[in-house]
Prior knowledge:
Elements lengths: L5 E3 L4 E3 L2 E10 L2 E3 L2 E8 L4 E13 L2 E13 L4 E8 L1 E4 L4 E3 L2 E3 L3
Parallel strand pairs: 1-3, 2-4, 3-5, 4-6, 5-6, 6-7, 7-8, 7-9, 8-10, 8-11
Amino acid sequence: MDVNDAIISEDLTIEGDVLAKESAVLVRGRVDGNVTAKTIEIDRSGVVTGSVSADVVTISGELSGRVECSDLSLGETARVKADLSTVTLSSSRGAKLAGHVEVKGR
């Protein structure tokens, strides 16, 4: 994480959109809204209800909504109910995914 990046801590809930076009966002708490950033990581304790859009998205927590990215990685604790559009997708054993998946490839 860089000094300009945003961390949404475990005890924080944001109701509304998060926009950090040139920075990274680490979600350890809850976001009820859309998240747009250069890189988005939803940690094990993180929950996002809404759309996420970034170059790189890593999910180890919970997401309900939509994902648009170039590179998507699902950790073993990921719980995703979303429509996904990505260029590359990697998933660890144990990740849970429900929704429409479009992997465009390079």
